[in-house]
């Protein structure tokens, strides 16, 4: 059986950590996309205010299989 996959880019944010930002992004992806098979963390960034990290963000390349 063959299949075709597509990749879409999303960015997710967390006030806790990179790991949480990834979890938020995947959770939101599976609400919208069917057949999510994986993701690649393409980029990580932080927002700094007053010398402290206040937000973590990740850009994900989410792979999902297209319906037949």
TrEMBL record:
PANTHER family: CALCIUM DODECIN
Domain of life: Bacteria
Protein name: Dodecin domain-containing protein
Family matches, as InterPro entries: Dodecin, Dodecin-like, Dodecin-like_sf
Originating organism: Agromyces bracchium
Pfam families: Dodecin (PF07311)
């Amino acid at each position: 059986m063959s299949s075709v996959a597509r990749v879409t880019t999303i960015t997710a944010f967390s006030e806790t950590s990179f790991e949480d930002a990834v979890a938020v992004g995947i959770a939101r992806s599976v609400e919208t996309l069917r057949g999510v098979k994986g993701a690649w963390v393409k980029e990580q960034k932080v927002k700094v205010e007053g010398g402290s990290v206040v937000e973590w963000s990740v850009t994900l390349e989410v792979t999902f299989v297209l319906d037949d």
